[in-house]
Specification:
By secondary structure, this protein is of the alpha/beta class. It is built from twelve helices and twelve strands. Helix 1 packs antiparallel against helix 9 and helix 3 packs across helix 4.
Amino acid sequence: MEHGGDTKTYEGKSTHPLADFSANINPLGVPEILKDAMTRGLEGAPRYPDRFYRDLRRSLGDWMDVEADRLVVGNGAMEIIAICISLFETIYLPTPAFGEYESIAKDLKKEIVTYPMSHPFRLNVDDFIAHMPEGALTIITNPHNPTGYTLSGDEVAEIYEACVARGGYLLADETFLSFVTGGEAAQKKGLYRPKQITVRAATKSHALPGLRLGWAVINDGIRERFLKRQLPWSVNAVAEACGLRLKDCDEYMAKAREFIASEREKLLALFEESTIAEALPGKANFLLICLKDIHVEACFDFFLREGILLRTFSEAPLKDHYFRMAIRDEKENARFRERWTQFERSCRHV
C-alpha cells in the first residue's frame, strides 16, 4: 500500500462497513467552525482567489506569531514539500520515512542520500549529523512517520546547526505536531531560523484531506525562489475560508489531543499483553506495530475481511512484519481491539 486512505481499492472486500485505520486523520472529524466556513467559502466559487493569499497568510501568521511575508500556502503539505525539493540538488533524509519525499526527489532526478535506521527507528542525532552531506536539503518528519516518535526542540536545533554548518537547509515536516501535547511550543524557535523550512497542514489535524490546505514558514531568500516555481491559485476558495478560521479551533485541538492520548493508552495496553506483536513508542495519532513471527499479509487480510483497513508498506525494512494504524473514534478502536483478540487467538491455533 503506497498511501493510506485508499479505501476505493478495497471496497467490496468485506461484508462489514470499512473502517479506515490506514489514514491518520483527526478522529473528532471536521470542526463545526470549519463546516460553517466551508459554506461561506462556496460563495467565492465564481471568483478567483487572491493570487497572493494576503488575508489567509495574515490570519495564519497571527495564529503562529510569524510575519505573513514569511509564509507560503499551498495545495496541501505535499505541494510545498515538492517545490522545496526542486530547489536543491541533494536531499538527505532518515529512513524509513514518508515515501513521497524520495519519490519526488527521484522524479526530479535529485541526488538522494539516506540514513537507514533499524528497529525501533529512533534517530541517532549525532550519527545522523556525522553522515550529513554538504549543501543538502535535510528532511525530518516531526513527529516521525511512521513511528510517531518526537524529536525534542534541542535535537532539532542540533540538526539545524549542522545543516547551516554544511551549507544546507532543514525542512521540518510538522504535519502531525499539533497532535502532541506541547509539541508546537517545543518547536517554536524553528519558525524563526533563517535556514529552516517549517511545513504544516490542516489535512490531518483538522480532518480536511479532501480540501488540501498546507502552509510553511520560509525565511531567508529562498521564499522568492519558491514562489517563482509555484503555480498560481493553488488554494481553492473553500480551503482558504477554512484556513482563515484555523485560529479559532484551538479548543477543538485540545479535545482531540486528550481523546487521542486516552485511546492510545487503551491500544498500547492491548499490545503490551500481546504475544505476537509490539507497538513502537510514539506520541502521534497513530501506532507502528511490529509482528513478531507472522507475515503482515496474513494480518492485513484478516482485518480486511473484518472490515478494517490497515496501512502496510512495500519497502524494506517495514514490508514483511510491520503495519501502521490510526487512532480512530472510540467505537472503531473498540472494534479493532475485539478483532485483534480474535486474530491473536487464531494465530495460536495455526
